[in-house]
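Exercise 3.2. Students should predict the tertiary structure of the chain below and write it as structure tokens, then compare their answer with the key that follows.

Predict this chain's 3D structure.
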Amino acid sequence: METKNSIKLQPREKLILYGAQHLTDKELLAILLGSGIKGKNVFVLAEEVLKILDGYNYKTSITNLLTVSGLGKAKSTLITASLELSRRILCPDRKKITSPADALPFISHYSDRKQEHFLCLSLNGAHEVIQSRVVSMGLVNRTLVHPREIFSDPLKDRAAAVLIAHNHPSGNTEPSREDVEITRRIKNAGVILGIELLDHIIFTDNAYYSFLEEGKI
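Answer key:
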């Protein structure tokens, strides 16, 4: 949690004092980037890179990164190498989802996004995570998603279940009428496809709402 003093700290100093886990994705990218370019500071550059990474579910290629004006080959290769090294070191085994809290490491870094991001985790029969993806990105306070978008990739993954989640930029985790309706539609579609909807989680930077825990699934 940030204090009044920590707000003024630059990302490197903040990391040293509080640890990398207390930095946002944009701050972590700012450290990797080191500096911006003329007319575009490092935080603006980091924001543009994040949009690329979100759009490609953190599996982007260097070609995609090179479309960001001012990024260049050196910084693009640094980011690409960092993402691949993180994947190899931190995700060698599949993580089993036994409670909503187990899913938070896969989704919580989207909590600071200014738009809603709708996510889907493909799970095998043991409820181990096969893949985590961004399905859609919406407006400030809503995102539109269709069951076919949710199940398109899980079908290719041969998933036995899915867990869906989205952030609420407003900071309120209470589900809207649309959230309840899309949960119902996705659950019903999953029954037809033979893919269980395990949970729907609405999250912010400091709280979450689980349809499963609240008995709504």
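Discussion points: The two ends are 32 Å apart (CA to CA). The chain has eight helices and five strands.
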